[in-house]
Each structure stands twice: as structure tokens, then as C-alpha cells.
Amino acid sequence: MLMCADTVDPCTFAPFVYLFHIWLNSECWMQRNGFRAYDGVSHNATTLDECQAACANDNTCAAIDWEPSSVGESCRISTSTDARETVSVAHYELKRICLRS
Question: Alpha-carbon distance 73 to 66, whole Å?
Fold first, then answer.
């Protein structure tokens, strides 16, 4: 999993960095602990990697929420990055790489 810096837009990097990101599956994730998406839908993924892969393979997905708990992890997939503050949840926003022609 490639993590993005909080304030960096991957679409503004120099072209050589585009190639680096494309080589690493053309996506990166910005993590925001203590947030949950407003419109998340439950998904049956059992690991964080599975949850992120489910989102990356869905063109409408913009973010996931991952909530570890004593009864098992919870994956929620969202079409929006709008999120509210909460506890015990890691919110990951998917940054898809922009390809310039």
C-alpha cells in the first residue's frame, strides 16, 4: 500500500513521479485517523488490503473506513471523501493517479 502525503496532490508531481506511482498500481492512500465517511456501505473484506483492493477496483469508490474491533474488523466503502469525526476508525481516501496526454 502506498501512502500519500496529507497535502500532496499526486496529479501535480513531475512526470517521472507519475511513472513511479503507475508502477505501484496507480493509486495511493491518504489516511485520516478518527474520521468516518458519511455514505459508507459495509463490505465483506476481512483485511485492510482486501478493503483497499475492493475500493481500487470500483470506479465509483473514493474512500474506505477501516475499523478494528474486538469482534473483528469492519470495512466500509464510500463514493465520497466527505467524513465526520469519530473514534476508532481509520479513514483512507483513494488518490487515483492522473495521466496526462
Answer: 7
